[in-house]
Amino acid sequence: MVSSSQVAEHVRSVHAIISRPQRPSGHELVARSWLRCFHELGLDPAAEDAPPPLAPQAWRERGDKLGEVMDSAVPEMQTLHRQLDDPNSALVLADAEGVIVSIVRHPGFARDASLRGLVEGARWSEDIQGTNGIGTVLAERHSLVISREEHFFARHTDMVCAGAAIHDGVGEVAAVLAVCSLSPGGARALRALVERSARVIEHRAFRSRHATDFIIRFHAHAGRVLTAVDGLLALSPEGEVIEANHTAFELLVPDGETLLGREVTEFFGQSLPELLSRTFRSGFHPLTLSMPQHQTWHLLAQQPARNRAQAGVRGDSGSAAQALAELDLGDLRMAGNVHSAMRILDRDIPLLISGETGTGKEVFARAFHASSQRARGPFVAINCASLPETLIESELFGYKQGAFTGANRDGRRGKVLQADGGTLFLDEIGDMPLVLQARLLRVLEERKVTPLGGETPVPVDLQLVCATHRDLRAMVRDGSFREDLYYRLRGMEVTLPALRDRTDRRALIERCLAEEGAGRHPPVRLGAAALQVLERYRWPGNIRQLRYVLRTLVAMCDGGEITLRDMPSELMDLPEPQPPAASATAAGDARGDAAPPSQNSHLNPLQSAERDALLSELRRHRWNIAGLARELGVSRNTVYRKMKRLDIDTDTQAGDGY
Description:
Blueprint: H1 4-18, H2 28-40, H3 56-65, H4 68-84, E1 89-95, E2 100-105, H5 110-115, H6 126-129, H7 135-140, E3 144-147, E4 160-167, E5 173-181, H8 187-209, E6 214-219, E7 231-235, E8 241-244, H9 246-252, H10 265-268, H11 272-281, E9 287-290, E10 296-302, H12 308-311, H13 317-320, H14 332-343, E11 351-354, H15 361-370, E12 379-383, H16 389-397, H17 415-418, E13 423-427, H18 434-446, E14 448-449, E15 458-459, E16 463-468, H19 472-477, H20 483-489, E17 492-495, H21 505-516, E18 525-526, H22 528-536, H23 542-556, E19 561-562, H24 569-572, H25 579-591, H26 605-620, H27 625-632, H28 636-645, H29 650-655
Helix pairs in contact: 4-8, 21-23, 27-28
């Protein structure tokens, strides 16, 4: 903490700066903030105390009001926290009034963070905390770094705080993302990292809000289209701007003119239908538009992400070509996957799809096929893990009459030949035996197939798409997968994110519900509480599990709304204790320093182990119920119910010293 002599020295510095008619060059922003704090807000730089944080219910309600921004920020904050790897820092999200609504920090930094007011519910606006990396961002409306002695209050001068604004769709600051650190150096790097993450959050939130609107993505630099720094416009069907992200405001109306409600033709010289048509004809590659004012824009027009119940059955090539685009519901990683796949459409480049089981690899493969010029050809799928090793070769390459005992009298065309003129989808390619990998490689190189028992190669023309949940690179290293085949299959690789990591879960849930409930009268809808449970569940089985759950809920729903009463019990309860906790307990017993017997003698051994595991998690989160619930993907009420069942109460918390 800051010593009394340091406080006195800082107070003298503040008074010296604010009393000068001319401020030192490079310190205008800090000096301007200090003047506000001293003259307008009447703050004393030597003040030691700040008001207590808001009650939990109050700051949680503020977080809920942030909506898509909050939903998009939580996973990005976890990612940035791991990237920073700084045990003396706190990563915070504050609302437009400077109230912290979410915080990620190293467990060892919790006490120091609390002493400095870096806790949920604390207000960090300038009128409360003086010049700082949250409140001053709100006052100045752009990203900045407040480093140590640049803080107005002396109590903050041992800290560096880098903050970046997160804007809404009408040009206002909706929230601030900031990193506050006690570690030396790295201020410029901190600012760059926070700015990037703020743009990612802003993008995700914008696309989530406008999943059912037309979107224009553009920039003056071609390489920035379809990145976290491009301009976004949400348009009505008539081509009027509904909302825009901060980059779009800066690029199109840098002088602060009105942007909302204006026609897209005014900025890009073409109507929305023309831009959509040109984007389609370009194979979904960004267009280059040269404007009369010597301005060049690189632009991509996207249709709304409609579910099948809204869009109906695809009946023409134009709607079929949207199959890939419809997989983009607002998650930035899925948007990147869709864009990458569109770039290789009809270019004879193999596609490799990786991801956990149930993430929708075959759905992605079918959309890739339906969006290509091969859409009228066959889509032939084979699961390499579901067939016995002795049958895979005949299934893939076929066989001639009498090729082996038990063969069909007339022979059989293999899957490769069946896919001629279309797409061959090899699921779980990592389970293909090595000997067949060599044959597949030869087919891909020669574009000819020789059936078992045959002598004459048969030409074949197909698009190859493969999928796996395995780490093929690791398999190449250990010799279980051919390196030459791996590089032949990996023309383009996309990795589908797990459902628990996707920021478009709500849109995906609503789409799946519409598909599972298609034709049902009255239509089935999700109640707010039930939707919240589905959004926060961690979905170990990914989208496949989600579909089965929704299918059952639709079948069992008596009315038109699915409520909490309809939820399966496994979605309402916390996960069982994990093996590491049990292993740690066993290790403790082996050392002879096992924990004393539980006072809750009415609990059976399994419940006692569960109680210990939950207590461990609560202590790791310093009894922050909301933080634990967010990490586990459940509601706070679920945590409280579990605590009550296992006799964990406030007396236990007090015993921990929290």
